[in-house]
Amino acid sequence: NKLCAEWDCAVISKAFRPDHYHLFVSFPHVIVIANTVKVLKWGTARWLFQLFRPIKKRFWGGYLGAASYYV
Fold this sequence. Notes:
It is a single chain. This protein is α+β, with helices and mostly antiparallel strands. It is globular. The protein has a two-stranded antiparallel sheet. The chain has 3 helices and 2 strands. Helix content is 42%, strand content 18%.
């Protein structure tokens, strides 16, 4: 929510699964979709790595999630 506030976005809905999550996000038309996704994914990964430090070294070589998204 902090990232969304900074980027003038709003999370409409979210769904969590054991191995992934879905976000339905609204954002201004002047923001490029790819940039919004990149910032949200980067911010989420950073937050998780700070909260659970051991996972950064243990999983995905320091990367969280796939490079893909659906529009």
